[in-house]
Amino acid sequence: MRITAEGLAWSVAGKSVLAGVDLDVAPGETVGLIGPNGSGKSTLLRCLAGLRTPTSGSVAYDKEPIRLWSARRTARHVAFVEQAADTDSDLRVEDVVTLGRTPFGDRWRGFSARDRAVVAAALARLGLTELRERPWKALSGGERQRAHIARALAQQPYAILLDEPTNHLDVKHQLELLGLLAATDQTVLVALHDLSLAARYCDRLLLLHGGRLVAEGPPRDVLTPRLLAEVFEVDAVTGPDPLGHLAVAYRGVAAPPVPGDAVAPAAGGPPAPATEDPVVLASPTSATDHPTPELVDSPTPKET
Questions:
Q1: Where are the beta strands (DSSP E) in 124-256?
Q2: Where do the structural domains in the chain lie, given as residue ranges?
Q3: Separation between Cα atoms, residue 256 and residue 249, nearest integer Å
Q4: How far apart are CA 136 and CA 22, in angstroms?
Q5: Is pLDDT above 70 for 265?
Q6: 206 and 40 in contact (C-beta within 8 Å)?
Q7: Which helix (H) or strand (E) holds 143?
Q8: Is the Cβ–Cβ distance between 222 and 228 less than 8 Å?
Q9: What confidence category does residue 287 fall into, taking pLDDT thresholds of 50, 70 and 90?
Q10: Strand order in the sheet with 212-217
Q11: Where is this region: Disordered (predicted)?
Q12: pLDDT tens for each residue of 67-96
């Protein structure tokens, strides 16, 4: 499912949070959303998910404006995982994941055998089968995050939007989750803070700064020393890690920017390829990527 936004803007109390954002995410693409804190990543995701009404501009899925969809239709097509979603503490893990089947359930007959099978598969995919009976209040932060992601997978959506889903996850579960997202046929837009993980698992990156989209394109074209200094205010180099993956290494905080030398918004597509020579962080070695799992089932057939 293709996600598009045109001239997207959102403001609150007279303060602009997003301004003039245009984006186009192709079906099946995994796109990373990066930028410093306060750059507008969470607001953009909530507008794309239909949870926040833009001040101006539009959001569409396969050219259908999301503002025209019912809540049920939206939930059947788009799953959104927040940074820290509140959930009733009396629920069990399995109950939370089963919420993902609500858009498909029958109010009179409840959930079907297929619904229960989809939930079981989502629990297994996130390594939560043995925790399915555990009360929510007994879970760690990482376990709760994995349960919310399993709930999103149980929706079997066409598009998955995630706001910093690796927060609270240990290294193993970060790698498993991002490998899973990169391998799926669903359209994925994920906000990430770890730039090296974003470079490894995302097809493209969108860089937000001050509520504007300032760069987009393949990770190698976006994660340049110049943009890292101007947007993130860090002195960094990029190059292959020992396994050959693009990675970012930090020398420290960047020198203050020259007045008037602000980053311009992206216009008309991705920026020109970086002119800096790539810096090799370590000599590449022969290695095979760890195989990545697939998401739960395929999406429920689209409504007509």
A1: 159-163, 187-191, 204-209, 212-217, 234-240, 246-253
A2: 3-216
A3: 19
A4: 39
A5: no
A6: no
A7: helix 141-154
A8: no
A9: very low
A10: 78-81, 159-163, 187-191, 30-34, 204-209, 212-217
A11: 259-304
A12: 999 999 999 999 999 986 666 578 999 999
